[in-house]
Amino acid sequence: MSPVIEVRNLRKTYGAGDTAVHALRGLDLTVEKGEYIAIMGASGSGKSTLLNILGCLDVPSSGKYLLDGIDTGEFDEEQLSLLRNRKIGFVFQSFNLVPRTTALANVELPLVYAGVRRAQRRERALAALDLVGLKERTHHRPNELSGGQQQRVAIARALVTSPAIVLADEPTGNLDTESSREVLGILDRLNASGRTVVLITHEDEVAAHAMRTVRVVDGSVQTGGVAGVLV
Amino acid sequence: MRLFEIAAFAVRGLTANKMRSGLTTLGILIGVASVILLIAVGNGASSAVQQSIAGLGTNILTISPQRAQPGSTVKPLTTADAAALVGPDSPDVKYASPVVSAQATAGYGTTSYAISQFIGSDPRYFDTTNSAVAQGNLFSDNDVQQARKVVVIGATVATQLFPGTDPVGKSMLVNNIPFTVIGVLAAKGSSGLQDADDMAVAPLTTTQNALTGYGSLSQIVVQARSADALPNAQAQVTTILNGRHKVTQTADYRILSQDQLLTARTATTETFTVLLASVAAISLLVGGIGITNIMLVTVTERIREIGIRKAVGAPRSSILGQFLIEATLLSLFGGFLGVAAGVIGSRFTIAGIQPVLVPSSVLLAFAVSALIGLFFGSYPASRAAKLRPIEALRHE
Ligand SMILES: Nc1ncnc2c1ncn2[C@@H]1O[C@H](COP(=O)(O)OP(=O)(O)OP(=O)(O)O)[C@@H](O)[C@H]1O
Ligand SMILES: [Mg+2]
Fold first, then answer.
1. 3-state secondary structure of A38
2. Is A142 touching ligand 1 by the criterion CB < 6 Å?
3. Which UniProt keywords are listed (chain B) (predicted)?
């Protein structure tokens, strides 16, 4: 069985000439189906750049990214949007909910673009909100929710399409301990139900939830990844 | 994904920020309405001038003194000239009214008012100028002979000097000389740039005594027996006046028929209309820039939202569709309101002018604003939709 994520010699350069920033310098990474991976590394080492490429939100300057064994470099914009919609759930550090739109409508959003019918859409969105413990807040707008609640809505949105992979860029970075614990609990349960989870974090306690920690140093993976079940 | 869902996003996008949608609509509304209204006012002014001249009747000749040319002398037009124009030598002339006019300050009680035209003439003047009396009476030939200090005032003078009271029978001071108001003329409305009701008429003799002195008349207004007799009447009047003024080469007076007057005035109002049209063009431009501006701000503010939608898998076409529908709704709604405001506004008199709608201007204003709104509402959105999701999300 092929790995769900396979990255070969990935490079990403921002800008050109003297001011060019080499965010990724020939990075290799393999993630098997059902794995739970924490990506760690110093600020500016290229973690977010990597995760954005894995989420098909950005494209690499060179190198290969195989998703479920298929080379994403051959996909056009239309197919990429389909991938983002069906296969990937992305959770941002800054939540990125559509403003002035209820939690329910935010969670329904990917389903609308997937063409799911109204009644079923509602049912699935409510189920996702229930899963993150926000059944009582379905009609609140983002500005009426706490940071932790907003992040849980964002996670509900990421998992509502039942994606194979959930990617999370510092999902607890803006949250207090209690909210962090809730969010990590949800991610743990997602992984337990068979989803592949990749998250970025700066905190060892968060990384402890993962099966494996990948350390990114200067745009490539430090070899000899530590098994991080207990730190 | 169905069109219906995209349209629902568009409507939700508009209602989610009512303030922003409202302001955009308002911008388009003002742009459209001001263009329609300005053009209607220009058009109204010129048609009012034409109507007021047409109202004079087609059988009128106006004789006015010519300015002195070098090497020729100018004889004033006199009451005797006017009297000589009616007689057996001029069978086609019905009346000839001598007219003097001046500006005068009128006072009643503590109010005073500058009347822009104080006219002295005879009773025929009312007939030739189609002036009807609304209250009281006109003066008679007897009043002219006796030089009685009576005056008939226009509607504007009546409202300015006698608000809430009946002017008839009151004594009004004209340049400190008391005149008895014996009648008020029916309102004629404004004739373009000048208020036709801002006037008063007194007997010729009285006016000369009190205001103008016995110099040249301002005009002699000749009424021919019929419109068909006008050319004959003009020839007879010319012969008589040439004889009396001993004209050899160039006449020292000028005869204008109503046709000529119309041509002259039309030229003036055309200039006015061109002026207003350029103001309208500028306001269309300014309105357009306003619409452009608010549409650009609206879309720029929402590039992050476009990024979020793309991140959860929105295809480019659905984002384009959403913003296109939003821009269309705003532009059409604002455009319709603007047309409504323009049409309603043109029912009111503006600066003394009754605007007359020009249908093509309604269409033009609507089309230009709607297209600008559509273009600037959807073009930046289409550019944003082409960005990679992460670029759109990072947009400041
Ligand atoms: N859009 C961009 N344009 C130019 N340079 C960029 C851009 N995005 C990231 N970079 C640069 O690429 C490098 C890696 O950035 P990245 O965001 O991946 O770091 P990170 O590991 O996520 O850091 P942090 O832990 O602080 O979030 C940094 O030096 C950053 O300045
Ligand atoms: Mg980062």
1. strand
2. no
3. Cell membrane, Membrane, Transmembrane, Transmembrane helix
